[in-house]
Design a protein that fits this description.
about 700 residues; 37 strands; 5-stranded parallel sheet; 8-stranded mixed sheet; Rossmann fold; elongated; 4 domains
């Protein structure tokens, strides 16, 4: 029960104060004049003013409410190291017991690892707890953590003390691998430098060697070991082995006594790209599509094009020596003998033997392909003649043999059954919108050089299902033969045109070994902790993909055919680290999670960073290794932490259940008192 005196004035307070001022002035005048009853008149004025103020007695029935203590338990990855879980559990049980003995209510929140590598968001959890509790009942807040909190700037404005109980041991030490810088992409064949650092922190043993073993593995292959110094930046020169994603794994063996080896490794994914593609285009017989290749290659700013053109028609015999056909001496020997390996792709566009390129040069082109080069033959009628390039050393690497027949009839280029699964031609129809009045996906071509398959893969066919586009691998290189010189009809829009640019782009990129166009490949992409697996194959079916998890366990992932030759699936990775995938002869590796998880950037417990937040309301930072502190009640404004104890501020909050308002004195009684006092003043002054 609580009682208070309230006022409900019958007149506005300014008017009552004005009347009080006037009454005071009259009383002062009466006292100055020497009237003996002035004090009785003052009492009468006071009674009248009290009647106007209308005083009343308010009685409240109150139900006391318990004070609330907020507790945030940090259960992030760094809190699962060594014996910190046991420290957490023991402190939590003790806090629950002591809070209950103090008659307070405990509200808890548990914080795990935040998404997107944000670390331990303890202050965010505390703010959420505070938002759900009445501010007037909060007696204090306790953080059970290792002190490695990554949202300290979000510390809420508490009306009571904030305390931190720090886990960990004074003798803990840790070794971690730091990746100072790592590019997201690098140019193939060019060396780049990564900066690493091996850092030892905490109570480092005095007998620890000054050099540590560093293991480096690329794409899941067997690692190579190096002995490197600790405590200083390491400049590591690397060269990417292939185009596409390269997964580089760094690892340090666990040192005796270190608190964890989770930060002893790092995985870096670097995309290998070509700087500038060098293409040698050798043009022979002039024809309407000659500029098609040149325009395609010149439209790409990343392509360096060398165009070698023979302009003299084969039927012209003017006696001019071959060496005098150009205004300047063309470096044929340098191109085809000395510098051929510097080109990524060589294209012969309707070229025939004219005595310009000796057989030795063409034989070197064959050897260039076998060493890993790429050759594209865009043929015309001359390929079916005695001057054909097939009648040179290049015949050993070509997948098709000409029959000397040239088909001069309109036909619709079609994708073969194999081509429906090949990445060069798969879905090519979707790249072009046909004419509304036509059922054909694209326009017709008018000429085809008949070839007999000697190997390779026919991905497009022409008139009579004859091979139109053939692909093959020779040694380490690749060869393609286009058995027509009418691809330019699509570019000119003949009968609606066709996806000429896309076809030639895919063809050129396949020949230069772009990973996206490999006919047999296993690829994996990550989105968060989800892995999307794609198996590209020319087969009708594939087996399950075997996935090797970071912890060493294996699981099979069944794939579903989503397009011809394309099988896909997805899985959820349970933890960060390197995942190895294998299906048949194909394998892939992918890393989930950040290169350096934020939770393991600093693993040694420390409460230093929490001191500004706890000091605002005179809270404390206590180390659990020194013992669990007692919980005490402390008045507001006093120090809330001391040696072996932390304090909670009682809030004395309550809930009002009933309110009663009773007038102190009736109004008529005030008037009667005032009248009696004025009569007494009159009588006193009258008798004198």
């Amino acid at each position: 029960m609580a009682q208070d005196i309230l006022f409900d004035p019958l007149l506005p307070w300014p008017l009552i104060l004005g009347l009080a001022g006037a009454a005071l002035a009259l009383l002062a005048l009466q006292a100055w004049r020497g009237l003996s009853g002035w004090w009785l008149r003052g009492l009468a004025a006071f009674a009248l003013l009290a009647a106007l103020a209308n005083p009343a007695l308010q009685s409240e029935e109150r139900e006391p409410l318990s004070d609330i203590v907020l507790l945030v338990v940090d259960e992030s990855a760094s809190q699962r190291l060594a014996d910190r879980p046991d420290q957490n559990a023991g402190a939590l049980a003790e806090i629950r017991r002591e809070v209950a003995e103090l008659g307070m209510e405990l509200r808890e929140a548990r914080v795990g690892d935040a998404e997107d590598n944000q670390g331990s968001l303890v202050m965010g959890a505390l703010s959420q707890l505070m938002a759900e509790a009445p501010r007037a009942r909060i007696a204090g807040a306790i953080l059970l953590t290792d002190g490695r909190i990554h949202d300290l700037e979000l510390a809420p404005d508490l009306p009571a003390p904030l305390h931190a109980l720090i886990t960990g041991r004074d003798g803990d030490w840790d070794r971690r691998l730091i990746v100072r810088n790592a590019p997201s992409f690098a140019i193939l064949g060019e060396e780049f430098v990564m900066t690493l650092r091996i850092e030892d922190e905490g109570a480092v043993p005095g007998d620890l060697p000054e050099r540590a073993e560093l293991r480096i593995a690329i794409d899941g292959e067997a690692p190579r070991s190096f002995m490197v110094p600790t405590g200083q930046d390491l400049e590591l020169p690397l060269t990417l082995p292939h185009a596409g994603m390269n997964v580089i794994q760094f690892e340090l063996p666990e040192a005796p006594g270190e608190i964890t080896d989770r930060n002893n490794g790092a995985v870096v994914q670097i995309n290998g790209v070509r700087d500038r593609l060098r293409v040698l285009l050798v043009s022979g017989q002039p024809h309407p599509g000659q500029r098609t290749w040149r325009n395609l290659l010149k439209s790409d700013p990343s392509v360096d094009l060398v165009h070698f053109t023979i302009l003299r028609p084969p039927d012209r015999n003017d006696g001019v020596p071959v060496t005098e056909l150009s205004l300047i001496a063309f470096p044929t020997r340098e191109l085809f003998m000395e510098s051929i390996d510097e080109f990524d792709l060589v294209i012969f566009d309707r070229y025939q033997r004219r005595g310009i390129l000796p057989m030795l040069y063409l034989d070197n082109v064959r050897a260039y392909v076998e060493r890993g080069g790429a050759l594209l033959m865009a043929t015309g009628p001359e390929f079916a003649t005695a001057a054909s390039l097939y009648r040179t050393p290049l015949a050993d690497i070509l997948p098709g043999r000409p029959t000397a027949q040239v088909v001069e009839t309109p036909y619709l280029p079609e994708i073969s059954e194999l081509g429906e699964r090949h990445p060069v031609t798969r879905g090519l129809e979707d790249e072009h919108a046909p004419l509304p009045q036509s059922d054909a996906p694209w326009g017709r071509w008018l000429r085809l050089i008949e070839l007999i398959e000697d190997g390779g893969q026919t991905v497009m066919t022409g008139a009579g299902e004859r091979p139109l586009l053939m692909l093959d691998r020779v040694g380490e290189g690749r060869v393609a033969v286009l058995a027509s010189d009418h691809a330019w009809l699509w570019d000119r829009g003949y009968e609606g045109g066709g996806p000429q640019l896309e076809l030639l782009r895919r063809l050129a990129h396949w020949m230069m070994g772009e990973p996206e166009l490999e006919e047999e490949a296993l690829r994996a992409e990550a989105d968060g902790q989800t892995i999307f697996v794609t198996r590209q194959t020319l087969s009708d079916e594939v087996g399950a993909v075997t996935v090797l998890y970071p912890d060493g366990s294996e699981h099979d992932l069944a794939l579903e055919e989503t397009a011809p030759g394309r099988f896909t699936g997805e899985l959820r990775g349970p933890e960060v680290g390197l995942y190895r995938l294998r299906e048949g002869d194909e394998d892939a590796v992918i890393a989930l999670g950040p290169a350096a998880p934020r939770e393991f950037e600093e693993t040694l417990a420390s409460g230093t960073g929490l001191e500004p937040a706890t000091g605002v309301m005179r809270g404390g930072v206590m180390v659990l290794e020194e013992g669990m502190p007692d919980l005490r009640r402390v008045p507001e404004g006093r120090n809330a932490a001391g040696r072996g104890w932390i304090g909670l501020t009682p809030r004395e909050a309550y809930l009002t259940t009933d309110v009663t308002v009773t007038p102190l004195i009736a109004a008529w009684l005030f008037l009667l008192i005032a009248a009696a006092l004025m009569l007494a003043a009159w009588l006193r002054e009258g008798r004198r």
